[in-house]
Amino acid sequence: MSEQPTRNAAQLTLVAPRRAKPQRHLADLTMAERRAAVAELGEKPFRADQLSRHYFAKLTASPDQMTDLPGETRERLVSQLMPSLLTSVREITCDGGMTRKTLWKLFDGSLVESVLMRYSDRVTMCVSSQAGCGMNCPFCATGQAGLTRNMSTAEIVEQVVAGARALAAGEVPGGPARVSNIVFMGMGEPMANYKAVIGAVHRLVDPSPEGLGISARGVTVSTVGLVPAIEKLAGEGLPVTLAVSLHAPDDELRDTLVPINTRWKVAEVLGAAWDYAARTKRRVSIEYALIKDINDQEWRADLLGRLLKGKLAHVNLIPLNPTPGSKWTASRPEDERAFVRRLESHGVAVTVRDTRGREIDGACGQLAAASPEA
Ligand code: SAH
User: Fold this and answer.
1) Is residue 16 part of a domain?
2) How many domains does the chain have?
3) Residue 18 CB: number of other CB atoms within 10 A?
4) Is the confidence at residue 68, as pLDDT, over 80?
5) Residue 74's domain spans which residues?
6) Is 291 in the pocket of ligand 1 (CB under 6 A)?
7) Does one domain contain both 355 and 221?
8) Exposure of 40 by Cβ count < 10 A (0-12 exposed, 13-18 middle, 19+ buried)?
9) Mutational test site, ligand 1, from 125, 130, 185, 254, max ligand atoms within 8 Å of CB
10) Does 313 lie in the same domain as 199?
11) In sequence order, which residues have a C-beta less than 8 Å from that of residue 87 and are 6 or more positions away?
12) pLDDT category of residue 172 using cuts at 50, 70 and 90
């Protein structure tokens, strides 16, 4: 244990630094707020419905295509309510184009990444919720640079809209398609940017053209375990899947792997997770990155199995993805198999996550948003 960095709650950044905010965007607003915003700009409220249809249904923010609005009105409404918030800096693809990672620059130069993964039966987008991350987990590349700032609701949504556009335009091999699943597993701790993330979830799941009309069942919010936020999420009436990044069943190890554990312990985090499952009837996903000789012992699998036995949960094992400067590596295949068997012997459902995007540093824990020059 001695070679592990010591971290404590004091080094964690739960509250993002105050910075200039991105310009207001249609996607930040509820339908009622959009109508009010349009009225403030001296236009009839129904223009908000038209704009919403262009943005959320037709996926366009280009005035030329809004032929149902008078020319001058379009230009003004688009400049006021549909500013361009993300600029693509770099796009890398692998798996014959079925996986693509985009590096985005935000208005203030902050960099974030999103990943689109097309499978035979679905398209999953992994989105960022903060520029950087304040949670400081030592095995995650994002955590190493610290937290720059919270993203706005619209900045989060724009990542998905950009992916949806690329899919609709047939830019991703396999013919035109839609985004079916969203995972808040990109950069950042979504529950530390609660309000903007809830707003984004609404825009994703609200029926078109109010939102994108993606099924809430296809949305997963992943957290290190910010207990008060999990409790709040359970009361939102949004049946999204909760994923908890557990990574260790015991406080001693989890304190070092997920430093926020020094604030909210394993038992508290799991307690909040079971409440979430009971209230939403949604199975909770327990994320566990298997790290060679650190958390992959059979006794830990047993301990985890006992904690999860009979609960509405399933374990997602993630073979550790390499990150710069980390001395840790993925578990041996035989240890991974033994870990799976032990968990299954307790009747716990287990899957091993694929390592999509690993070769483009787009897999779990690899999003660091290095600029092209870096
Ligand atoms: N902050 C949230 C959202 C990020 S999700 C959270 O931690 O849940 C990213 C997932 O990938 C988390 O489960 C995280 O712990 C995991 N992860 C981070 N670094 C990883 C790595 N190097 N290999 C595999 N998984 C990693």
Assistant:
1) no
2) 2
3) 8
4) yes
5) 26-81
6) no
7) yes
8) exposed
9) 185
10) yes
11) 104, 105
12) very high
| Closest C-alpha to ligand 1, atom 8 | 223
Nearest Cα neighbor of 245 from 150, 133, 331, 345 is 133
- In angstroms, rounded to a whole number, what is the distance separating the alpha carbons of residues 144 and 325? 10
Both 161 and 61 in one domain: the answer is: no
Shared domain check, 182 and 44: no
pLDDT at 373 over 50: no
Decide: 192 in ligand 1 pocket, CB within 6 A.
no
- The answer to whether 307 and 269 are in contact (CB under 8 A) is no
**Residue type present at position 90:** R
Q: Are residues 65 and 91 in the same domain?
A: no
Q: In this predicted structure, what is the pLDDT of residue 6?
A: 47
| Spacing of C-alpha 366 from chain mean position | 13
Residues 6+ apart with CB under 8 A from 31: 48, 49, 52, 210
77 CA distance to ligand 1 centroid (A)?
Answer: 39
Which atom from ligand 1 is nearest to the alpha carbon of 365? 19
Residues 105 and 197 in one domain: yes
- Report how far residue 166's alpha carbon sits from residue 185's, in angstroms, rounded to the nearest whole number: 20
> Is 0.90 topped by the overall pTM?
yes
Q: Is residue 108 part of a domain?
A: yes
Q: Which of 318, 326, 352, 355 to mutate to test the pocket of ligand 1 (most atoms within 8 A of CB)?
A: 318
Distance, CA 315 to ligand 1 centroid (Å)? 14
The pLDDT of residue 97 is 94
Same domain, 71 and 210: no
- Report whether 91 contacts 100 (CB < 8 A): yes
Residue 339 has pLDDT above 50, yes or no: yes
Based on the fold, state whether residues 47 and 109 are members of the same structural domain.
Answer: no
Helix axes 266-280, 227-234, angle to 10 degrees: 10
Q: Identify whether 12 is part of a domain.
A: no
- Residue 9 pLDDT exceeds 60: no
User: What number is the average pLDDT over the span 339-347?
Assistant: 98
